[in-house]
Design brief:
single chain, 396 residues, alpha/beta, Spore Coat Polysaccharide Biosynthesis Protein SpsA, Chain A, 60s Ribosomal Protein L30, Chain: A, 4-stranded mixed sheet, 16 strands, 30% helix, elongated, binds cytidine-5'-triphosphate, binds magnesium ion
Length: 396
C-alpha cells in the first residue's frame, strides 16, 4: 500500500472573530454570502491551493458548524483538516492554529476567513515566494490619498507610492512563525508585523482586489454583489464573448472649489456638486464598466457608505474599477463617453481628457465627445452636466 503523502504546507484559517463591526448577530465567518457562508467561500480558495493541512480556528461554541462546513467543502481532503477553538484576540486564535500543526509541516499560510473571496492565485504567489523568503505578505497598492491626522486636523501628507495595504494569506517558514509567536510580547494586527518585529525580512507579492476583508455591512454587500455576479473561480463559465455595458450620470453645478470633469480640473469654471468631485464622465464610465462585467453599479462599490471616496477624483474611481473588472476576468476593449454640457468648452482639451481617462484605466482607449443641447433641458440651460458611456469588455 502506498502511504498517503503528508503535506508540508499548512493553511491556518482564522474564523473565530465575533464580527462586532459587521453586527450581523452571528460570528462573521458564519454569515451567508449566498447559499454559503463567508467561511465556506474562504475555504474554496484554500482548497484550490496545493494539497495542504487545513486548520480552521472556530468561534468558541461553533466548532460543530465549522466542522460541517469543512467536511462539505473539503470532500476527499477532509482527512487533512482539523478544527480548533479560537481565542479572544486574532493573535490568540492564530496561536491555537499553530499548536495544531502536524510535524511534517515546514511552511505555514495564515489566512483571514473574512477575506472570503481571495482568489487561488494569491495563495499560489505566496507559496512561490516562500521558496526564497522566510515571510511573504500579499499587498495591494493604496489608491486613496492618505493624510496624517491628529485631533481632527491634517498634520501632514503621506506619499501613497510608499504604502501597501496588507492582505492575507500571509506565508511563513514554520520555524520563523513559531519562534516569533513564542517570543511576542504584545498584540500585533497581523502576522507579518509580528514576524517583522522579531527581525525577519518580509517580502511582498501582489494581492488582489477580491481579497478585501469583510469588516462592515457595506463590505458584506459588496461581497454578496461579487458572489452573485462572479461565482468563485472554477465555477465561472469561461467568458467566451465580449460584453458591453452602458452608464449615465448627471451632476448639477453648485459644488465647492474647482470644476472636475472627464478626469481634468477646469480652473475658472463652476464646480459640479456630488459625494465625490461630481465628475459625471468618470462616473458614467464606472457604471458602464461595472455593468458590462455584471458587477453591480457605482453605488455597490463607491456609495456614500465608503467615506474614503468622498472628494476623490476620476483616477481613483477608474483605477479601482479597472482592478475589479480585471479580477473578474476581463480586459477593457474600449470606452466611449459623451458629455452634454453648455460649459466648459470641451474640444480644446479633448486629447488631454482622453489621455487622463485612459491612463487611469491602465491604458485602455477612451474617446470623449461633447455636445450642447440646443438650449433645451437642464444641460441646455447650463444647470448641470450629463454623461453617457459605453464600455466594451473582452475575456482576459
Ligand atoms: N479572528 C479570530 N479570532 C479573534 C478575532 C479575529 O480568528 N479573536 C479572525 C476573524 O474571524 C477574521 C480575522 O481574524 O477572519 C480578521 O479579524 P476581523 O476582521 O477583525 O474580524 P472580527 O474580529 O470578527 O471583527 P470585529 O473586529 O469587527 O469584531
Ligand atoms: Mg477584530
Amino acid at each position: 500500500m502506498t502511504p498517503i503523502p503528508v503535506p508540508h504546507i499548512a493553511v491556518i484559517v482564522v474564523a473565530a472573530g465575533s464580527g462586532t463591526r459587521l453586527g450581523a448577530g452571528a460570528p462573521k465567518a458564519l454569515v451567508g454570502l449566498d447559499a454559503h457562508s463567508v467561511l465556506r467561500h474562504a475555504l474554496r480558495g484554500v482548497f484550490a491551493a496545493p494539497e495542504s493541512q487545513v486548520v480552521v480556528v472556530a468561534p468558541p461554541g461553533h466548532e460543530g458548524t465549522v466542522q460541517t462546513e469543512l467536511r462539505e467543502e473539503a470532500g476527499p481532503r477532509f482527512d487533512l483538516t482539523s478544527v480548533v477553538t479560537g481565542g479572544s484576540t486574532r493573535q490568540e486564535s492564530v496561536a491555537a492554529g499553530i499548536a495544531a500543526l502536524w510535524a511534517d509541516v515546514d511552511t505555514v499560510l495564515v489566512h483571514d476567513a473574512a477575506r472570503a473571496l481571495t482568489p487561488p492565485e494569491v495563495f499560489a504567489r505566496v507559496i512561490a515566494a516562500l521558496e526564497d523568503a522566510p515571510a511573504v505578505l500579499p499587498v495591494l497598492p493604496v489608491v486613496d490619498t492618505i493624510k496624517r491626522v491628529a485631533d481632527g486636523e491634517v498634520v501632514g501628507p503621506v506619499d501613497r507610492a510608499e504604502l501597501g495595504a496588507a492582505q492575507t494569506p500571509q506565508g511563513f517558514r514554520r520555524d520563523v512563525l513559531e519562534t516569533a509567536y513564542r517570543t511576542a510580547t504584545h498584540e500585533f494586527t497581523d502576522d507579518a508585523a509580528l514576524v517583522g518585529a522579531a527581525g525577519h525580512r518580509v517580502v511582498t507579492v501582489e494581492g488582489s482586489p477580491r481579497a478585501f476583508k469583510i469588516t462592515t455591512a457595506v463590505d458584506l454587500d459588496r461581497a454578496r454583489a461579487l458572489v452573485a455576479a462572479v461565482p468563485a473561480t472554477g465555477e465561472r463559465p469561461p467568458a467566451a464573448a465580449p460584453r458591453v455595458g452602458v452608464g449615465t450620470d448627471v451632476h448639477a453645478f453648485g459644488g465647492d472649489g474647482a470644476l472636475w470633469l472627464a478626469g481634468l480640473e477646469w480652473p475658472g469654471e463652476r464646480a459640479l456638486s456630488g459625494h465625490s468631485d461630481g465628475d459625471a464622465a468618470a462616473h458614467a464610465i464606472v457604471d458602464a464598466l461595472l455593468s458590462a462585467a455584471g458587477l453591480g453599479d457605482i453605488g455597490t462599490h463607491f456609495g456614500t457608505g465608503r467615506p474614503e471616496f468622498a472628494g476623490a477624483h476620476a483616477e481613483v474611481f477608474l483605477a479601482h474599477t479597472a482592478a475589479l473588472v480585471a479580477a473578474a476576468g476581463w480586459r477593457i476593449g474600449n470606452v466611449s463617453v459623451q458629455l452634454q454640457a453648455l460649459r466648459p468648452i470641451f474640444a480644446p482639451r479633448r486629447a488631454e481628457a482622453e489621455a487622463a481617462l485612459s491612463a487611469a484605466l491602465g491604458g485602455a482607449p477612451v474617446s470623449v465627445a461633447a455636445t450642447t443641447t440646443d438650449g433645451l433641458g437642464f444641460t441646455g440651460r447650463g444647470e448641470g452636466v450629463a454623461a453617457t458611456a459605453v464600455a466594451l469588455l473582452l475575456p482576459a
